[in-house]
Amino acid sequence: MENVIQIVPNEWVTEDLLIALTGLKPGTIARARKKSWLVGREYRHVSPENDPKPTSECMYNRKAIDAWVAAQKQPNG
After folding, report:
1. pLDDT tens sequence across 40-59
2. Which residue ranges make up each domain of the chain?
3. Which residues pair with 59 in a beta bridge?
4. The pTM is what?
């Protein structure tokens, strides 16, 4: 019998968990960070020293990203 782990995510999640929760692909996340998302709203850089750099790991605000997905324009048709 396999173990099943149920996760109740925090507001801020890692990229791996964001992918699992939303189905977004890593490339989509990277492009959205560069073109659409704002630091502090959809994502933020984090570091153990509390001094993140632009290359530091990112955490993602899943609620803000859900709102971003919901606000997407839909193609005509």
Report:
1. 999 999 999 999 999 999 99
2. 12-69
3. 44
4. 0.84
Instruction: Cite the DSSP H helix spans in 1-77.
Output: 15-22, 26-35, 62-70
- Give yes or no for a contact between 57 and 43, defined as CB atoms under 8 angstroms apart: no
Neighbours of 67 (CB within 10 A): 12
Angstrom distance (rounded) from CA 27 to CA 23: 12
Give strand pairing partners of 45.
58
Question: In the predicted model, what is the mean pLDDT of residues 4-15?
Answer: 89
pLDDT surpasses 80 at 29: yes
- Please give the CATH architecture assigned to the domain spanning 12-69: Orthogonal Bundle (1.10)
